[in-house]
TrEMBL record:
The lineage of its organism: Eukaryota, Metamonada, Carpediemonas-like organisms, Aduncisulcus. Coiled coil: none annotated. The keyword Zinc applies. SUPFAM superfamilies: MAL13P1.257-like. Keywords: Metal-binding, Zinc. It holds the Pfam family CXXC_Zn-b_euk. Belongs to the UPF0587 family. This is CXXC motif containing zinc binding protein, eukaryotic like protein. InterPro entries: CXXC_Zn-binding_euk (IPR008584).
Length: 148
């Protein structure tokens, strides 16, 4: 990041690729909305996504966690920051896209809309603070953890 001190997810929707853990079918373009609350039919809780696998008809659920409150700063000293957590049942996330962010420039100006383009970069000029800001490399990774 050049000229940007922090970014955090702007959109409350995560576009994902989901794999059924029962039959292995991969579902592309599945949007999980942080503000959607779906009650389980069996009384197991509230989810942001409830769907059936197209192939085996098994139930799959997902709950978004840590969105939108976590932000990435270069001060954290890591190449990656946990910006979203997704708890799943009956499926696993095999890919996701977060494209829209907000941020703060080094001059303290808010950056209301950071949209990462197809090649993983963003560049803009902020008139109020006479700054050029950019993100030249953006990548995502998935880490799996087990619930206790």
């Amino acid at each position: 990041m050049e000229g940007i001190t922090s970014i955090k997810p702007f959109s409350h929707i995560v576009n994902t690729q989901i794999k059924c853990t029962s039959c292995g079918h991969v579902h592309d373009g599945i949007c999980i909305d942080y503000h959607t609350a779906i009650e389980s039919k069996r009384g197991r809780g509230t989810f942001n996504l409830v769907m059936k696998c197209k192939d085996c008809k098994r139930d799959m659920t997902a709950v978004l966690m840590n969105l939108p409150s976590i932000e990435y700063t270069e001060e954290n000293g890591s190449d990656f920051a946990k910006l979203v957590g997704i708890k799943t049942t009956g499926c696993e996330i095999t890919g996701f896209v977060l494209e829209k962010f907000t941020g703060i420039s080094e001059g303290g100006a808010p950056i209301d809309e950071i949209i990462i383009d197809e090649d993983g970069s963003f560049a803009d000029y902020i008139d109020a603070t006479d700054e050029t800001v950019s993100i030249m490399e953006y990548d995502t990774k998935i880490e799996f953890t087990r619930s206790k």
